[in-house]
Amino acid sequence: MGFIKLNDAPRAKIMIRAANWVGDAIMTTPVIRAVRKNFPKARITVLAKPWVIPVYENNPYIDDILVYDSNNRHKKGFGTLRLARDLRECKFDLAILMQNAFEAGLLSFLAGIKERVGYNTDARGFLLNRSIKLDPALKKGHLIDYYIGILKGASLVDAGRKLDLFLCEPDREFANYFLEQRKFDLSEPVIGINPGATGGTAKRWFPRRFARVCKNLAQKFKVKILIFGGPQDKELGDYIAGLSKGNCINIAGTTSLGQAFALIEKCSLFITNDSGLMHAAAALNINQVAVIGSTDYIATSASNENSVMVRVPVPCSPCMKDICPTDHQCMIKSVLIWLWRGVIFF
Fold this sequence. Notes:
Elements: E1 13-17, H1 22-27, H2 29-38, E2 43-48, H3 53-56, E3 64-67, H4 78-90, E4 94-97, H5 102-110, E5 115-119, E6 130-132, H6 136-139, H7 143-153, H8 169-181, E7 191-194, H9 207-221, E8 225-227, H10 234-243, E9 248-250, H11 257-265, E10 269-273, H12 276-283, E11 288-291, H13 297-300, E12 307-310, H14 329-332, E13 338-340, E14 343-345
Parallel strand pairs: 1-2, 1-4, 2-3, 4-5, 5-6, 7-8, 7-10, 8-9, 10-11, 11-12
Antiparallel strand pairs: 13-14
């Protein structure tokens, strides 16, 4: 049975179930570009949790975004049924599931979507009439290729691995205004650090080392460094700013995600842990240094050529744990000795 023919049907409606985390969402953007390539006349809608919507909202390959309000209207239980009803009212012809959970398959089934495409993970294969068997090689590769594999398994053509992140002018204007107000000379480097990471401390390089890097770079270039992060990282940012003796401006938790993207776009250098903002910098092709310890560097490393990965292959890494159960050797031994514009910094 051939794949549904939608490319010449202007009425065709496609729903893409987005990944749930910012970094994963960014790594699915090559799939969205490919879906548009395969179905140029279709109406493409992304179903996404609220916190990842900024990844998609300016994407020209997307027509609509539906909010998966899992904390309120679509909360687990009756909210799941309500979301299925909302999707049914949209009368989608095709669902492409980037999110691999059983729930994603159940929702598309309950919504009555005719064609349901996704990996046969989480015991949901019977809910998908386009159930894709996961190639074992993709389990050992990068997540970008893992997501693209869904399309290939459905006999659709891909559109390359390049990440997309489209910014809006109001966010770019905010970034310009923010830097002007703080007297940044845009002819000089703008440097950002991202010392936080979701899921616990195992993924984080040490605050004192971030602070030492900031002091060295600030002294060399006579600039202040921006500390990025979410509201949960504000205290960490304040601590690093204090250690760096006035060389940093902590903006963690003070901007929207879109505004943070726009400020990263202004950076000449971005130093980060494995995080969503690391993938944002990769999508924007920003020079960056990524310190990776507990996570799978093959699956989630930054994908742009301007990224340098700092990783020490200790026996217990990658452990994929939130909290290091031993002595955090993957981070203790990760020392930044890296040349950038003639500066070797720690």
